[in-house]
Amino acid sequence: MVSLLQSQWGHLFTNTEDALGATTTNGGRTIVYTSQENRQHLLGHLTLLGLKQPVMPWCSDGPAEAELGGTLETTMAHWADACRAQGGTVVLPHLPNPNGEPAALIATGRADAVEMIDASQYKHQEYYRYLNNGYRLPLVGGTDKMSSDVPVGLYRTYAHIRDEEWSYDAWCRAVRAGRTFLSAGPILRFSVEGAEIGDTLELPAGGGTVEIVAEAESILPIHTLEIVQNGVVIARTEESAGTRKLTLRASVKVGANCWFAARCGGPRYYDMLKFLDCWGRGMFAHTSPIYVAVGGAWQMFDPATTQYMLTLIDGSLAYIRNTAAYDAPESVTHHHGESDHTAFLERPFHEAAAALHRRMHALGIPH
Predict the structure, then answer these.
(1) Does residue 152 contact residue 2 with C-beta atoms inside 8 Å?
(2) C-alpha span between 99 and 127 (Å, rounded)
(3) Mean per-residue pLDDT of the chain
(4) In angstroms, rounded to a whole number, what is the distance separating the alpha carbons of residues 143 and 3?
């Protein structure tokens, strides 16, 4: 399945001749679905999968994404809501940057998945911090093919489709369910006490010991295979010369809600074989989590991440109020049709702050 994403760069609009929707090739085994990546230079980018009607504007708020002199017309939340209304799938690409609105989308449940575009430690830690704050975020890969020196599928998403025929909608459902791993080539298999990627394993109060199995196979050499719990490597195996297959088993005592994931890569994981593309990206693969709930529903909370999200929300509000460009009041008709454009722009950030405060209140945390 290949996603061909319409977007714009300033006054250049790409793919306008490609109608939204799916085209099948290779006897139905290959699906090319034309959809959109809508972008703003500060609030962020958003991949909208499965669109049937355009979600406009494609880009907003001036260079380098929208047209020179462009104004802040809309929010990522509005794009996400419009995509969801069509039954589409909302992906935060190359988390976290641009890092204006992603926190608000995650807090309000508008993000169906997040994309890790390379294997930098920074991007890993950004992903892990949201998982540790109790957000279920499936992980996907993305090529971000911006030129001919990046091959289609350099980084890809493998989604496990259960009990369904292969189709674009089935693939999207598997992505939203978190039955995914991203990969530059290696195939990952991962289970926790029999639970598969995307599942929630339920343990009785007090927890217990779980058996974890991870396997990685690759045409190109891999050096390390690791099991991560709550963002910390708890088990690893390494072949310094490189190999095409690694297996790792671990028995882990679990006493509280947590998540596990598997990942493979180069020596010391982050030191990886580099591809010859313009990004200089390397060989790695990473699963979505398996969640473990102990004595009740799965939930986690991290005060530092919550404060981080509130800070990003405040910063975005400050940008909207003090820096962003606007058309003169009553000089244009905005897509939303509301008289107060600033209130429209600020609304999803207030919704996100309220959602975070409700979580803190429910957990009895001062705020």
Answers:
(1) yes
(2) 13
(3) 94
(4) 10
Structure tokens, 197? 């990627």
From the number of C-beta atoms within 10 Å of its C-beta (0-12, 13-18, 19+), residue 297 rates as exposed
Contacts of 302 (CB under 8 A, 6+ apart): 129, 132, 133, 134
The residues near 356 (Cβ < 8 Å, ≥ 6 apart) are 107, 306, 309, 310, 313
**Chain-centre distance of CA 227, in angstroms?**
20
Number of H helices, E strands in the chain: 6, 20
pLDDT at 274: 72
Residues 147-187 have pLDDT tens digits of 888 888 889 999 999 999 999 999 999 999 999 999 999 99
For tokens 């974890």, the residue is 212
Q: Is 77 helix (H, G, I), strand (E, B) or coil?
A: helix
Say if CB 32 and CB 2 are below 8 A apart: yes
User: What are the helix (H) ranges across the chain?
Assistant: 76-85, 102-107, 121-132, 168-176, 303-322, 341-362
Pick the closest to residue 256 from 305, 292, 301, 303 (CA basis).
292
Rounded CA gap, 215 and 201, in Å? Answer: 19
Question: Burial level of 184, CB count in 10 A (0-12/13-18/19+)?
Answer: buried
Q: For the segment 43-87, what is each residue's pLDDT rounded down to a tens digit?
A: 999 999 999 999 999 999 998 899 999 999 999 999 999 999 999
Task: Please say if the pLDDT value at position 238 is more than 90.
Answer: yes
Distance CA 56, CA 66 (A): 12
d(Cα 245, Cα 52) in Å, to the nearest integer? 41
Place of tokens 């289970």: 191
Query: Does 307 score more than 80 pLDDT?
Result: yes
Task: State the pTM of this model.
Answer: 0.96
Among positive and negative, which fits the CA dihedral 254, 256, 262, 263? Answer: negative
Handedness of CA 128, 129, 134, 139 (dihedral sign): negative
Q: How far apart are CA 306 and CA 107, in angstroms?
A: 9
Q: Are 93 and 37 in contact (CB under 8 A)?
A: yes
